[in-house]
Amino acid sequence: MGQITLQGVRKSFGPVNIIKDANLEIEDGSFVVFVGPSGCGKTTLLRLIAGLEDVTGGQILIDGKNVVDVPPAKRGLSMVFQSYALYPHMSVRGNIAFGLKMAGLPRPDIDRKVEAAAATLNLTPYLDRKPRELSGGQRQRVAIGRAIVREPKAFLFDEPLSNLDAALRVQMRLEVTKLQKQLATTAIYVTHDQVEAMTMADKIVVLNAGRIEQFGSPLELYERPANLFVAGFIGSPKMNFVSGEAAGEPDVATLGVRPEHLRVGREGEGWSGTVSVAEHLGSDTFLYVDAGKLGLLTARCIGEFSLKAGDRVWLSPDPARLHRFDNDGAVIRK
Amino acid sequence: MARKVTARRVWVSTAAAWLFGFLIFLPILWMVLTSFKTELEAFSMPPKFLFFHWTTENYATVQERSDYLHHALNSIIIAGGSTLIAMIIAIPAAWSMAFAPTKRTKDVLLWMLSTKMMPSVGVLVPIYLIFRDFGLLDTRAGLVMILCLGNLPIVIWMLFTYFKEIPKDILEAARMDGATIGRELVYVLTPMAVPGLASTLLLNFILAWNEAFWTLNLSTLEAAPLTTFIASYSSPEGLFWAKLSAASTLAIAPIIILGWFTQRQLVRGLTFGAVK
């Protein structure tokens, strides 16, 4: 079991409020990603759940029990750190076994569990090596091994892949997702990378300036962002925002349309503009179009689209996929 | 830009380094040489460097007049005991300052160090009276206590700087792995800090071994360490240079041997944290 509930959780360091009234319900077995720009409080929120920081107010419930006064060692959670945080003086075996040793398990049980965890993570040949003799990816695996071997109620991941190179990151991303599904243990994963968030999560929590902006499935956030911040943060390239007045909808403050929902034509209807930059990726073409009073718009076309800088184009947004926001940035639903 | 290293440059700097090393070592060498001279030759003018009548009679006289081993044992007990107790107090103190600092941690550290800036003689009378009233004069326990307290600020400072170098994440990982603070100290922090602990231990052992102010003033015979033993050769009847040198050579021999075998740890300890 690993159901985690946050009720009115607040955290301040001196006069600075880092987390302002966080409420969240994380279901047992789900993979939840905290995403947001740097300094939004996502790591702090994770550390509050871990118990490495004390809450200023509110409650954190794990399986219905308030744990705000319980030390991290007794919360039954395990954590994977950004820096791996392996014990440098212990072998891989020692690192993985440490938590079990602290729990006072008998030696044969420890050995069996360590071997099993190592086998799952392809670490068996490295069990007697020291962390400094391993590559970045292998170290990351040891850190994950240390987390899974204790069979915790939930895993907490603090940007675990950000120190790996791009190719390894994609591979580890898949492995972590697969492992979590296989173990069916609740996982909370912090990242600033929205691609990681979209691909790994069952549910995403978007944080901004210490506030939870939206909590929902990846597609929900993509299709129905609750406000301007989420609309701009989720999706790549970023959503285009134009003022309602300029777009001919004076009762709307801001109109949002994703680059992939703009149809591009060489003539015809819609918003006209000139291509300022065209990026040809082969699979896609990104067009950065100067649309006069509407500003700079980004359009994404599938496949090769032979346009170059200076060409005149017409952009017509898909009317079903327009997002309308009021003066406060909240979405207007019809 | 890398400069070209010519053979001449290497030769000149090597010679300069040897010369400088020799200059620093000269007083110790001179002391050892003097200990093998007769009292008369010890202050002959011009001084005799190597060509004198070599004799070991000073060592025999010194051993006869005072019990070297008794003082050496006192030195070992006092230096070792005060260092060990200081370490036991300083490890948790430095841990809390490095990993759970409060707003005033820096002030506390500075305040501790400031106690070392006061001349010891300023508190000699009150300390002497306290020792007298508690029956601590000329006892090993009393000297262990005063040297331990005297060196504690330096021990805490040194450990604090080593602990600062250890990533906080690793201790947090141990906490997440279910370690209590005590186990975190024993299984994670201490093994990781071994080089720092070793050099702190050594340096403080040497400081306590060489400490002369308190040992001279608070001990006479029973608890007297080697510093008192040396001082006894500067007597009202005059200075006996050759015997004084023999006593000093005997007194520093153990610590020089210890320093020789642990020089790598010592150097690492003194430069730790300077370069990442």
Descriptive account of the structure:
The complex is a heterodimer of chains A (334) and B (276). Chain A is α+β, with helices and mostly antiparallel strands. Chain A folds into 2 domains: 4-230, 3-Layer(aba) Sandwich (Rossmann fold), CATH 3.40.50; 237-325, Beta Barrel (OB fold (Dihydrolipoamide Acetyltransferase, E2P)), CATH 2.40.50.140. Chain A contains 8 helices and 18 strands. The mean pLDDT of chain A is 91. In chain B, helix 8 (168-176) packs antiparallel against helix 9. Chain B is built from 14 helices and 2 strands, in the order H-H-H-H-H-H-H-H-H-H-H-H-E-E-H-H. Chain B is globular. Chain B is mainly alpha-helical and 276 residues long. At the A-B interface, strand 6 and helix 2 of A face helix 8 and helix 9 of B.
Give a short summary of the structure.
By secondary structure, chain A is of the alpha+beta class.
List keywords for this structure.
heterodimer; A: 334 residues; alpha+beta; Rossmann fold; OB fold (Dihydrolipoamide Acetyltransferase, E2P); 2 domains; six-stranded mixed sheet; five-stranded antiparallel sheet; 8 helices; 25% helix; globular; B: 276 residues; mainly alpha; MetI-like fold; two-stranded antiparallel sheet
